[in-house]
Amino acid sequence: MGSRQQTEGERARLPQLSRRAMLVGTSAAASGAGASAPLGAGAHPFTDPTRLYKHWVALDREVERLLLRWGDVEGWLIGEHNWCRLSEAEQAVLPEAQVLREVDELLKRVMGARDSLLDKLPSRGATTLNAVAARLGVVERLLYWEDHPEAHAMIVGSRRDLTAILAGARPWNGLS
Amino acid sequence: MSSRHSKDDGWTSLPAVSRRAVIGGGSAATAAPRASAAARLAAISAASTDPAKPYKAWLYIDAKISRLRRRWARLEAYLSNETRAIRPSAGPNSLPRALELRDIDGMMDLLSERRAALFEALPVRGAATLEELIARLAVAERLIWNDNHMEASAMICGTRQDLVSWLERGRLPGR
Q1: Which of B148, B154, B172 sits opposite A176 (nearest CB)?
Q2: From the CA of A71, how many Å to the nearest CA of chain B?
Q3: Which of B51, B83, B102, B171 is the most exposed place for a label (fewest CB within 10 A)?
C-alpha cells in the first residue's frame, strides 16, 4: 500500500483505506447510520427481521464497495507492475499485491456472509411496516435495474411510499 | 379441430375454441365469466377513481396473454405431431388448425400492444391506498422471471400477501 501512495499517477489518488478498516470490513458507507453491525463477530445475531434485512443490505453494499476497490487495486497493479504478464507464482509473492490479496479474501468472507444470510431472510410474515419496507430494500438490491427497469422502479416506489407512510408524510386513505 | 377430438389422447381434453372465440379473446369453457370480466375491464376508464384499477387491468391482460401463450404452445406441439406425414411443400394454411394458431398469434400481438399501452400509464410511486400498493407489487411480480430471481420473487410475493392480510384485518400494523 505504501508504494501506491508514493506514486504520482492518477491511481495514487485512490481513496485511502487502512488495512485494518479493510479487514474489519467497515467503510464510509457501511459505518454510517445505515449499518446495522460490524461484520464478523456473531455473523448475524439479530432476531428482528427489520435488522436482518438492513444487515443484508449493509453486507451487499460492502460487497459492492470491495468489488470496486478490487478493480481499482488491480488496475493499479496492471499499470504499475505489469500484473497481467506475471505468472500466478509471481503474482502470489509480489509485495505490492498484498492489498489485492486481502481485498480478495475479505470479499470472499463478506459474500459468504451475505449469501448465507439471504437464505435466512423471511419472505413473508412481517408484523410491522418497517419490516416490509426493509424487505423491499433487499428486493431492490436483488433486482438489477438494467435487467428489470420497470419492476425495479416499482419496488423502489413502493418502498418509498411505505417510508413516507411511516414518516407520516403522506395522507393514507387505505387504512389507519 | 375434428382430427384432435377424434384422437383418444390427452388432446381430446382440450376445451374447444372457435376462431371467433379466439379473436374475441374467450373460450367455450370460460366464456361466461370472461364476458363479465371483459365488461368489467371495459368499465375501467381513465377517469376511474380507484387507483388500483390500472394495475388490475394490466394484470388481467397479462393473464390473458399467458393463457393464450400456453394454448398456442399446446396447439403448436399438437400440429407438429399431426403434420409430420404432410409433405413439406404444403402451405401453413393447409394444415389442420393452423388458422387457429395464426389467430392466436394475432390476438397475442393485439393484447401485447394493449398491455404495453396500459403499462405506460402505471404509476411507480405515490400510492394512496394499500390496495394500490398490493396491485403494484403484483405487477412487479409478473415482470420478473421466477427462475432468475427466486428470492426477490418470493419476497415480493410474501410482501404482497402481508399487505393483503393487513387489508383484510382492516388496519395497518405498528412500525
Answers
A1: B172
A2: 26
A3: B171
